[in-house]
TrEMBL record:
Protein name from the UniProt record: 5-methyltetrahydropteroyltriglutamate--homocysteine methyltransferase
Family: Belongs to the vitamin-B12 independent methionine synthase family.
Name of encoding gene: metE
Cofactor(s) for this UniProt protein: Zn(2+)
Organism, scientific name: Muribacter muris
Signal sequence range: none
Pathway: Amino-acid biosynthesis; L-methionine biosynthesis via de novo pathway; L-methionine from L-homocysteine (MetE route): step 1/1
Residues annotated for L-homocysteine binding in this entry: I432, G433, S434, E485, D600
EC primary class: transferase
Cross-referenced Gene3D superfamilies: 3.20.20.210
Coiled-coil ranges per UniProt: none
Binding site for 5-methyltetrahydropteroyltri-L-glutamate: R16, E17, L18, K19, K112, N117, R516, C517, W562, E606
Length: 756
């Protein structure tokens, strides 16, 4: 028989139950036991979904209250010592403090999980780090699942990936030196898992898809020789890219099976043709929502089955964390666009697809003939659809003016023209764009969508919110204002709703971090802009104030990265289509008198291919797309961009090549560490390093912000330094937002007086 398993499941629930319970807990509306009871119920539902689809194992240990890498920090006793917490007796409240910060400690730094839009909490390693096993997270979930009579497969991120994903703090050292201390602790955790009766343990090592240094690669042999001594079989899971270059290493590793991502890297299968252990084939896309052509998948799997027999396992390419929960609830999408609905598969549908594949492999295609016919019919309809391709969009892209992506003059000339009319003080202050999405805003939007509030009344409500945002910024004496984005449900979804080629789900939520969920648009066809999207809102905001108003757009790469993207066209082409559509919006903003325009690109870094050999091609088309989004604008129009929660030091030439007049970046959680690279590189344009963490409700002290700004002044010339928060303020409350910004302004004015 063919073994069918899942690498991981969405955590937040079909209706985001965990998110809402977490936030109630943080507001002290429910207690520990209430939150734990709900989490237990969600885990059981996830396991039952897998079991009912005939999965041979259910994934356990993948559920988390906030982040699976934070759970691993607790399990290995490596939580930051600065909090003063005991990892062996950590309370739920302390666990959340690690993720969100408290009155005395900033939260653990957060960054992207490989090239996804999920964020993990970065382990902080010091030379003095001492590991200590605490396997309770995994053991308790195993016991829960086994009590339900389920066959379990615990999931844990492997030691080399865990160590690689961390950062050194304090006295200089190489965190690789900690491996010899870490491996015995891992073994202790695995032994505790095995003692619960787990036959197989899945150990995720996605770092193998990266360009690891030789000593890290060489360590795999010894590490897994040690871990293989536990009384359970080990399945080493790789994903997000090819590991073909490590085939010899992996074939000889002391593990009992290997998982390969055959969606992202189907070509790597050839390198493992002679693998003589369990081979888990990741054949259903765990990162996108397109329905698989099951006949085509079987064309790959059937020869493998003939060769491997029971050593063939089938699975999604990676954890299903990255896909929405259930397509069947999307009744509105089905009614509006039945063809598109028929082309999609969410988590539960992907599990069903795997069940069909398992049955076909074990009993023959005839046993699932109807399911295979339906899959083929959907694939054929999509391939031949007339609504996907538009000749006018293709023609415009093919006939762009020469050097369309280049500004008219270099920055050194543009900035003089911009400064002449802006007349900003030293250390100009601004925010990243969004202000709190209050309960009133959300209620008005919900009422409007339900038809309970007229368009006229909805827009009046949004204008009232915009005026409030403008007045609060004026009181704070910010220099460059924003309208606050009250009318926007999401920085990507809002634009997708106004662009052709996009479709939307109602319940297609995926976790971004903690309780933060996003509902990515679906890019299914060629993209164009039928009408202005932001102009009237920015014009209205500007009419309320004499101060400079900044227009706010989401950039083409971020719209691409944070959407479910069609897989029948190169991503570069889709991105350039979005960029050209956005350029029309920039032109209209400029005509309307909005001559400071921010084009946010927080996803530039996360879009990098995992292999450096593929970086140049990506950075070329991503940079071109960003520049195309402002093609044709005048020299005195100031283009800003924003990037957050990413490392930039290895791609700074490409960041500089974006040629944004002002770039704002997240730097507070890293204590301005990210800014150092910009200084070493001698980044030529203006920079606004974030001076406080917007993901925490705490109000920073004046000393903290002054410390960060003085560090920034060691790197950035004072005439090119802007002051701003780390990111948008959408998720914060008004009281804390005003208090945080007031501290920022007080410190800025103090430094102006000192250094002007």
């Amino acid at each position: 028989m063919t073994t069918f398993h899942i690498l991981g499941f969405p955590r937040v629930g079909a209706k985001r139950e965990l998110k809402f319970a977490q936030e109630r807990y943080w507001r002290q509306e429910i207690g520990d036991q209430d939150l734990c009871d709900l989490a237990r119920a969600l885990r059981e539902k996830n396991w039952q979904h897998q079991a009912q689809a005939n999965a041979d194992f259910v994934a356990v240990g993948d559920f988390t209250f906030y982040d699976h890498i934070l759970d691993l920090q607790v399990a290995t006793g490596s939580i930051p010592a600065r909090f003063g917490f005991d990892s062996q007796n950590l309370t739920l409240d302390q666990y959340f403090q690690l993720a969100r910060g408290n009155k005395t400690q900033f939260a653990i730094e957060m960054t992207k999980w490989f090239d996804t839009n999920y964020h993990y909490l970065v382990p902080e390693f010091t030379k003095a780090t001492q590991f200590k096993a605490n396997p309770a997270h995994y053991v308790n979930q195993i016991r829960e699942a086994k009590a339900l009579g389920l066959q379990v497969k615990p999931v844990i991120v492997g030691p080399l990936t865990f160590l690689w994903l961390g950062k050194e703090k304090g006295e200089a050292f190489n965190r690789f030196e900690l491996l010899t201390q870490l491996v015995p602790v891992y073994r202790e955790i695995l032994e505790a898992i095995a003692a619960e009766g787990a036959e197989w343990i899945q150990i995720d090592e996605p770092a193998l898809a990266l360009d690891l240094p030789p000593e890290w690669l060489e360590a795999y042999q010894a590490v897994y020789a040690e871990l293989s001594n536990v009384n359970a079989k080990l399945l080493l899971a790789t994903y997000f890219g090819s590991v073909a270059e490590h085939a010899d290493l992996l074939k000889n590793l002391a593990v009992d099976g290997l998982h390969l991502d055959l969606v992202r890297a189907p070509q790597q299968l050839a390198a493992f043709a002679d693998y003589d252990k369990v081979l888990s084939a990741g054949v259903i896309d765990g990162r996108n929502i397109w329905r698989a052509n099951l006949n085509s998948v079987l064309d790959v799997l059937e020869p493998l089955k003939a060769k491997l027999g029971e050593r063939l396992w089938i699975a999604p390419s990676c954890s299903l964390l990255h896909t929405p929960f259930d397509l069947s609830v999307e009744t509105q999408l089905k009614a509006q666009n039945g063809d598109l609905y028929g082309w999609l598969a969410f988590t539960l549908q992907k599990v069903d697809e795997l069940n069909v594949l398992k049955t076909a492999l074990d009993q023959g295609r005839a046993a699932v003939a109807d399911a295979l016919a339906a899959s083929q019919a959907a694939a054929d309809r999509r391939a031949n659809s007339s609504v996907i391709h538009r000749s006018d969009v293709a023609a415009r892209l093919a006939n762009l003016p020469q050097n369309a992506d280049q500004r008219q003059s270099p920055f050194s000339e543009r900035i003089k023209l911009q400064n002449a009319w802006l007349k900003l003080p030293l250390f100009p202050t601004t925010t990243i764009g969004s202000f709190p999405q209050t309960k009133e805003i959300r209620l008005a939007r919900a009422a409007f969508k339900k038809g309970d509030l007229s368009l006229e009344n909805y827009e009046a409500a949004m204008k009232k919110e915009i005026e409030y945002v403008v007045r609060e910024q004026e009181k704070l004496d910010l220099d460059v204002l924003v309208h606050g984005e009250a009318e926007r449900n999401d920085m990507v979804e809002y634009f997708g709703e106004l662009l052709d080629g996009f479709a939307f789900t109602k319940f297609g939520w995926v976790q971004s971090y903690g309780s933060r969920c996003v509902k990515p648009p679906v890019i299914y066809g060629d993209v164009s802009r039928p009408a202005p999207m932001t102009v009237r809102w920015s014009q209205y905001a500007q009419s309320l104030t004499q101060k400079v108003m900044k227009g706010m757009l989401t950039g083409p790469v971020t719209i691409l990265q944070w959407s479910f993207v069609r897989n029948d066209l190169p991503r570069a082409t889709v991105c350039k289509q979005i960029a050209v559509a956005l350029s029309d919006e920039v032109a209209d903003l400029e005509k309307a008198g909005i001559k400071v325009i921010q084009i946010d690109e927080p996803a530039i870094r996360e879009g990098l291919p995992l292999k450096r050999a593929d970086w140049d091609a990506y950075l070329q088309w991503a940079g071109e797309a960003f520049r195309l989004s402002s093609m044709g604008c005048q020299d005195d129009t100031q283009i800003h961009t924003h990037m957050c929660y990413s490392e930039f030091n290895d791609i700074l030439p490409a960041i500089a090549a974006l040629d944004a007049d002002v770039i704002t970046i997240e730097t507070s959680r890293s204590d301005m560490e990210l800014l150092t690279a910009f200084g070493d590189f001698q980044y030529p344009n203006d920079i606004g390093p974030g001076v406080y963490d917007i993901h925490s409700p705490r109000v920073p002290s004046a000393e903290e912000i002054e410390h960060l700004l003085r560090k920034a002044l060691n790197v950035v010339p004072k005439e090119r330094l802007w002051v701003n928060p780390d990111c948008g303020l959408k998720t914060r409350g008004w009281q804390e937002t005003v208090a945080q910004l007031q501290v920022m302004m007080d410190v800025t004015k103090k430094l102006r007086a000192e250094l002007a």
